Amino acid sequence: MCLFFAILSALLVPGLARRRRWVAACSRMVFRLAGIHVTVRGYENLPSGHSIVVANHASIVDGVLLQGFLPARFSFVIKGEMQRVPGVSFLMRRIGSRFVERFDASGSARDARQLLRAASAGESLTFFAEGTVIGKPGLSRFRAGAFAAAINAKVPVVPLAISGSRQVLAAHTLLPRHGPVRIDILNPVEPAHPAFGNSRELAELSRQRILQILDEPDLLAEAAAEQRNL
Fold first, then answer.
1. Nearest to residue 27, comparing CAs of 70, 58, 56?
2. Would you kindly state where each structural domain of the chain is located, as residue ranges?
3. Could you give the C-alpha distances from 4 to 23, 25, 81, in angstroms and in order?
4. Strand 181-185 and strand 157-163: pairing?
């Protein structure tokens, strides 16, 4: 029902900002109807100007969550496979989301250039930096695209930690469970920070800040430890 109203508002409501506000209201309603309490901490850490938010990705509800609780000025960067989902693809395009091809090299390079131009033009973007939902609890490697865009545009990177969404709707499940969900918006990494000279360093700094908040393991550290024990 909420998806229907979101698509209807995206179709009928004029103006991108208005459409985003309507869809955000529908997104928040999803959690209210499901009995899921959402807490947001750190709104004051969002820069007043343009920025790039990078979040962990623990559940398929994460996109709905951030659509509902981040300011309307943020566009979402979504994996290209979502373009094949009827209804969702239309809705995401109508609210200014951007799709990124992950598997075709030429398409991926094209989309990366478009993101660089969008960030440089002053568009605030939101990335799920791991690229996709991983069934195993923990934080994986961050892809470089968000951080390359931030460096190119010289805008702050805002790490954001989502806690509880994995328990609410785990991978490969369809029915949500009751439980609390928390969004922690962390201190931004400003362009003057030394890590801004290298996208890998900036990605790892952001990942470590999120790890400090999450009650989940560092999957990269676990993989390194297993490799040393071979």
1. 70
2. 36-229
3. 10, 13, 21
4. antiparallel
Q: Is the pTM of this model over 0.85?
A: yes
Rounded to the nearest angstrom, the gap between the alpha carbon of residue 67 and the centroid of all alpha carbons in its chain is: 9
pLDDT in tens, 32-85: 988 899 999 999 999 999 999 999 999 888 998 999 999 999 998 887 666 666
Q: Look at residues 115, 113, 110 and name the one whose alpha carbon lies nearest to residue 125.
A: 115
The fold of the 36-229 domain, in CATH, is Glycerol-3-phosphate (1)-acyltransferase (3.40.1130)
Query: Are 51 and 124 within 8 A, CB to CB?
Result: yes
Separation CA 97–CA 59 (nearest Å): 19
Largest CA distance in the chain: 59
Question: Residue 169 CB: number of other CB atoms within 10 A?
Answer: 23
